[in-house]
Amino acid sequence: MDFNLLKTLCQIQATSGDESVIKQFLIDYVNKASSNWATKPQIIKGEGFQDNVMLIFGQPKLAYYAHIDTVGFTTRYQNQLITIGSPDVSEADQLVGKDELGFIECTITIDKNGNAFHNFKRPIIPGTPLVYKPNFSVAQETITSPYLDNRLGIFALLKLAETLENGVLVFSTYEEHGGGSAGYLASYLHNQHQISQSLIVDVTWVTEGIQLGYGPVVSLRDAYIPRKKFVNKITSLLEESSLVYQKEVEASGGSDGSEIQRSSLPIDWCFVGVAVNNPHAANEKANIFDIIRLVELLKTLSNHI
């Protein structure tokens, strides 16, 4: 599998609330690539949808969600940094960004109280978002890069798009810092297309029960609990197809599925994704086998739901 698209996605700056650049990248990519897809989708965007993008294929019954925002930092005063979402901050992490005075590349320093600062040669205009410096590398079995969360989810959906005949691909915003968009996007799809089934395509963490290289992950629960009947439907289809995957059970964490569950809509959801090491850090790591199998998993489910 060619991962150049994933590399490009990982290099696009798009912290929560600042997703317009990756939104435009997705629109341009779809307009160019969809001429070679099995089905050309309708693109839903613009007024009323902020920086979210949805692709409608055929007669959809299932929606796939992948958030397009990332964690990062906002500059404050006196070189202070405020976190966006929950980055795993380390001394000497390299950051990049751009303000009205030009390009920025700097390093994080942390004081004795745990507060983060930057060491850029000049003051950075307050309110400027900064992200981990791109550093994408492919080894024999793994990929390491900032922002595999959730560029891997976007990548998987764009690979699914090549063969998808019926379904909706939802590229949502703000997931890392408060959420919100998945709820009104789900409402739109429920009201306009009667869609009551959703898959959340995201990354999860390596734990004592989830490892790299053992296949993609289906979450039975996190801080929220999806309806067991729907989750059982997903796992039964995967087992009938003899697909390798891992089952996750956690007491904490969440995703766009949390927003859907908190809504007033009767919409089923299930989390599927890839495990990563070093989550929300500058060196997230995923297994290539797991990524390839995630795309296969999504294609299998698209043909049976």
Kindly describe this structure.
The chain has 305 residues and is of the alpha+beta class. It is 27% helix and 28% strand. It has seven helices and 17 strands. The strands form three sheets. It has an eight-stranded mixed sheet, sandwiched between helices. A hairpin with an 8-residue loop joins β1 and β2.
Number of strands: 17
What is the total domain count? 2
Indicate the percent of residues in helices: 25-40%
CATH superfamily annotation of the largest domain: Zn peptidases
Strand residue percentage: 25-35%
Query: How do the helices and strands follow one another from N- to C-terminus?
Result: HHEEEEEEEEEEEHEHEEHEHEEH
Q: Uncertain runs with pLDDT below 50, 5 residues or more?
A: none
Number of helices: 7
Instruction: Supply the CATH architecture of the largest domain.
Output: 3-Layer(aba) Sandwich
Q: If you average the pLDDT, what whole number results?
A: 96
Quick take:
27% of the residues lie in helices and 28% in strands.
Question: How would you describe this structure in keywords?
Answer:
305 residues, 6-stranded antiparallel β-sheet, 7 helices, single chain, 8-stranded mixed β-sheet, 2 domains, globular, Elongation Factor Tu (Ef-tu), domain 3, alpha+beta, Aminopeptidase
How would the blueprint of this fold be written?
Elements: H1 4-10, H2 20-33, E1 42-44, E2 53-57, E3 63-67, E4 72-75, E5 81-84, E6 94-99, E7 102-110, E8 116-118, E9 129-132, E10 137-138, E11 142-145, H3 148-161, E12 167-172, H4 181-193, E13 197-205, E14 217-221, H5 228-240, E15 246-249, H6 256-262, E16 268-276, E17 284-287, H7 288-302
Parallel strand pairs: 3-12, 3-13, 13-16, 14-15
Antiparallel strand pairs: 1-2, 2-12, 4-5, 4-9, 6-7, 6-9, 7-8, 10-11, 11-17, 14-16
